[in-house]
Amino acid sequence: MESKIRPDYNHQLSLKELPYIIRWDPAKCTRCGKCTAVCPTKAIEPAVFKQRIVISEGPIPTPSPVFKVFSGIKQVTDVERWCTGCNMCNMVCPNDAIMPEYNPQNKFLIHKNRGGYPYRRGGRRNDPSISTLDRLKFTRISMLTDPALDAQRHEFYIRTYIGRILPAEKLPLKIRKEDETLLVDDTVFVPPVREIFPIMIGSMSMGALSPRMWEGLMMGVAYLNEVENIPVVMCSGEGGVPPRLLKSRFIKYMILQIASGYFGWDEILHAVPHMKEDPAGIEIKYGQGAKPGDGGLLMAQKVLPLIAKIRGVPTNVDLPSPPTHQTKYSIEEAVAKMITSMSMVFGFRVPVYPKISGTKTAKAVLNNLARNPFASALSIDGEDGGTGAAYNVSMDKMGHPIASNIRDCYLDLVASGKQNELPLIAAGGVGKTGNLAANAAALIMLGASAVSIGKYIMQAAAGCLGDEYNRCNVCNIGKCPKGITTQNPKLYKRLDPEKVAERVVDVFKSANMELKKIFAPMGRSTQLPIGMSDGLSADDKAIADRLKIDYAC
Fold this sequence. Notes:
The chain is α/β, with parallel strands linked by helices. The chain has helices at about 5-10, 35-40, 90, 110, 210-225, 245, 265-270, 305-310, 330-345, 360-370, 390-395, 400-415, 435-445, 455-460, 490, 495-520, 540-545; strands at about 20-25, 45-55, 65-75, 100, 120-125, 135-140, 160, 175, 180-185, 195, 200, 235, 255-260, 280-285, 295-300, 320, 350-355, 380, 385-390, 425, 450-455, 535-540, 550. The longest helix is centred in the C-terminal third of the chain and has 23 residues, at about 495-520.
């Protein structure tokens, strides 16, 4: 028997193939059109439906069919216009008539890789499982100091350092024999050191973030430093910074990142003689946790005139960074050339350090840095780090968890006697489930001197809609419905930078209090418990053995 299904129908997808299915209630819908107007991927559109209704009327009811025509909302099954589940349609609907629903049976990845182009997206890896950091608990409670150390009344010193900390025997101090006066030896090189809050805002570039989001973050950081006396720093990410910021006094709260694309660095270098303040540090990016082994990528949809001007490139072109710095072929060369040259640019007054992906080779990088007097820290970005654009396969299948990576590196420093000399910065999934202070404290006790956050601050400060179920995550194509990761003025005008700044302040004040609540029972108030792993336990034996901490059940 001949098939009645047309070939073109046979090659279409059904809604069951898509990650989110729109649930629309025609009885509640007023056909106002707000939902179709705000949908970032145009996954829904107005449609006309013809419905068959059977009615029975009259003294002797006889069933008869009636066809009713009405307008409504239809979900598109084109894989290029899939529903991302951002829920903006529900947010603007006055009658709660529409809502996306996650479809766990979807085959989205099987169909998305079409045209020979692998699927690229923003956000973080699609992994809703509990992370290692959330399996750790603080189990060392000092009965002698608790409740003497009251987190709300006792004075705490929740601070850390970026910069090489010289051991006592290498300090530039000498005693004059005549009167035993302590003198400073000007002939000894003293590495630059910055005192900062142990939670920093990680590298998110002007380009990856919208101008209003970036401005809101910077305003919040400035307020925290100057009003709340919490020395939070923020990393610029690759791509330069607004020119007016370079010559303002607020640059001292900014860590400037240089990466293999060198985007925006012409303007930064030309501004060095005119800077009123030194930046807080220089970060040299060799890798990032979301796409280890790849360079950065800013897709053409986000390279609009403002970003093109700051970066010194044409508009509407993809901006990929090479996987490594063009002039370097080994970490030894990187240490000799990049770290030393960047130190020279700022007269050896600014800490300079590299950022690498979480990987088994992190210890090799660390051992080379430990021997270099100009290396000020090592930042390691674990596999749960977020990104504005990456191949899906890189985000989901590559990288190293940050907990074990930072632990291995710290124990290597302990073995060489340099655990108090070279700071480690941990990143990648910190605060993934909302436990920011607890995750930060756990990493500090595993050996990190500071932690870096990115996705968390986007969710907390601006309400980013992305999650680990591939919800929203259209950061890469400039269609962010919240206006966080887009360069489209129509979208980023939805964002109020003052509200963003207000929430940034809320986040860090809360984290500051929670860190005190964690450290007080341990009797720690004058210094961070860096590497104090005897205060940690895990409820999983394999995790406890891997991290060399106690197992508690």
